[in-house]
Structures are given as C-alpha cells and as structure tokens.
Amino acid sequence: MTIPVTTVPAGTTTESSHSAVSWGAIIAGAIAASAITLVLSLVGSGIGLSLASPFSSGGSSLATFAIGGAIWLIIVQWASAGFGGYIAGRLRTKWTGVNRDEVFFRDTAHGILAWALATLIVAGALGSAVSSTIGAGVQATATLTAGATAAGAAAASSDAGSNATSYFVDSLLRPANPSTPPAGSTGDDTAGQVSRILLTSAANGEMSAGDRTYLDLLVASRTGLSEADAKARVDAVLKSVDDAKAAVAQAAETARKTSATIALFGALSLLIGGFIAGVGAAIGGRQRDEVDGVLPA
Questions:
Q1: Degrees (nearest 5) of the Cα angle 252, 258, 260?
Q2: Which residues, in sequence order, are CB contacts of 93 under 8 Å at separation 6+?
Q3: Count of alpha carbons within 13 angstroms of residue 272, beta-carbon side
Q4: If DSSP codes are grouped into helix, strand and coil, which group holds residue 10?
C-alpha cells in the first residue's frame, strides 16, 4: 500500500502562529504622537493668543482665526501622526518568512492603530478640558439667568437703570428741554411702563398696535414733544433696538459657521493624520527591513 506524500510547492511562505499585532510598538508610537500633538497644540495656542486682542479694532478677525486654526490642525496631525506611525513601524519586531505585501500591510496597519490610539488619548484629554469649559459655561448661563430675572423684577418695581432696556428707555423719555423737564415727570412709573412694554415686545417678537399707540402718547406727554416728534423718536429707538438684535443674531451666525468650519477641518485633519501614520509606518518598516549590517557585540 502506497501512502501519498503531500509536497509543499517551492516558494510557499510559512506563517507564524504568533499574533501579527505588536502592541508594544503601537503604544510607543501612540505616546510619541500624543506628546507631539500636545506640544504643537500649545505652540498653536500661544500663536493664537499673541494675535488676539481684547479690542474690536485690533487683532485678527474671527474668520482669520478659524482659517488659521484649521490649517494648524492639519499641520499638527501631519507631524504627530507621521512621527508616531514611523516609530510604530520602526520599533516593530522584524518578521521572517512573510510575504513582502503582507509585511507592507502589517506595517501600515500598525501605523494606523498607533494613530487611532493617540487620537483616543488626545480626545480623552480634550474631553476633560471641554467638560470643564461646559461647566464654566453652565455656571455663566445660570448667572446670566439670575441677572435677567433680577432685571425683570427691577423693571416691575420701576428701577429701569438696572435692566438691559434702560438706555432705550432713557432715549425715549429724554425731555425736549433738559433744563425744564415737564411737570410731574419725577416720581411716576413712566420708565417702568416703558421697560415692560419693550421687554414684552422683545419676548413676542413685535410690538402690538395698542402698545405702540400708548407708547407714542406716553413719550409725548413725558418729554413735552409733539405727537409727530414723539412718534419719530419712538421709531428711531425701536430701529436701534432692532439693529442691536440683528447684530447679536449676526454674531451668533458667524460663531455657528466658524464652529462648523473648524469641525469639518478637524475631521479632515484626522483623516489626513490616519493616512500619514500609515505611510510613516510603512517607511519605518522598510528602513527596518533594509538594514544589512549588524553592530558587533
């Protein structure tokens, strides 16, 4: 009886039973990438703060900061992911008897895994910072809410100088002749009435016809102006209020667009970082495998 013999074709690669993932190299690359990300982020923050100005007429605009921040995110990812991937590929133990294409894939995968781990580390650190920022924002919002409540109570008690409408109230009730204000102009609740009308109109989005007619008559009687001049003054002040609201809305819209731009560029920078990490690991692995000489003991 003849026993068949199985022959192995020439050139067949014998795979190792050990895992193809070298976590030591991956962790080393991730730590290196995280450290470089931290350093470059601090450098970027320093540059940004040096260009900032507390005055509206000085410093760079919000759009300039958004574009500069987006470019810097890409630079940070490019440098940190490339270096971290190179470290992961170069420190990995050299495989023997493995197909060259498989070695290239494993090196690339090690670089991407190092990038992913570094991203999670940085995201965790930034998450703590964002949580602190959100906590501060919630506290500030609570303070503003309390202030708004106090302002509403002040308006109800005719203390118009402590709420946000006091300037517009003063503009409406400014007498035609400051040296001789109309009789009976002190000690009444005119300012409180005007404040409540303005606050209610702002909450409703528009002023009712009855409130507008009453406000015209109230301003005319309080300031000594004719009805036509009082109406013109009310129109001017209401336009100022609308302009202020429009400015706030525009600022909010600009902030929204800036945040969306930074988020999109952040996602793009991460994708670039993953690609660069894989390339860096492949370069490191090739240099590791191409070393011919061995240092003497």
A1: 105
A2: 22, 25
A3: 17
A4: coil
| Alpha-carbon torsion, ordered 32, 35, 37, 43, to 10 deg | -140
CB 160 within 8 A of CB 195: yes
Q: For residue range 225-279, what is the model confidence (pLDDT) as tens digits?
A: 888 888 888 888 888 888 888 888 888 888 788 778 778 887 888 888 899 999 9
The string of DSSP letters for 121-136 reads: HHHHHHHHHHHHHHHH
pLDDT value of residue 225: 82
pLDDT digits (tens, 9 = 90+) for 78-113: 899 999 999 998 888 777 777 888 888 888 999 999
Token digits of residue 146: 């309390």
Residue 219 and residue 234 in contact, taking contact as beta carbons nearer than 8 Å: yes
By the 8 A CB rule, do 28 and 93 touch?
no
- The residue count for the chain: 297
Q: Which two tokens stand for residue 30?
A: 């991730």
pLDDT mean across residues, the chain: 73
Give the amino acid at 270.
L
